[in-house]
Hints:
The chain is an all-alpha fold. It has 2 helices and no strands.
Amino acid sequence: MIIQISAAVATAAFVILVVAAVVSLRRLNRTMESVESTLNEVRPRLEELANESERTLKEARSLIEDVNQKTRQTDAFFETIHNASEKIQELSNHITHTASLQRERLGNLIAIVSSGMDLWKKWRSIRPTNKETVKKVK
Length: 138
């Protein structure tokens, strides 16, 4: 009899276990259907979002390439400006040097002319005038 009771208890436990498993599997099945339904709703949106993202990336790449190209063009422009400024600086230095030399030469010329005028004045002051020479001759 203990065997029969044990078999009945084991059978009851097995039935309860099977019923619990069936209930759990049904809940799992409903959950999976809900997840499938949600995925079916979300999938077109995700595909649209993926397409939009791909277009956005293509446009971004195009814009980046355009910016890089324009940057390369402006690099040449700024290099030209830099070279021109160096040449202008060289010209300015040359003009400054030349002006300094000319100023020195002009100073020397003024000194020579001034000395010449001083000599002329001294020569005129010591040279006898016509009246003096006429008196001495008589």
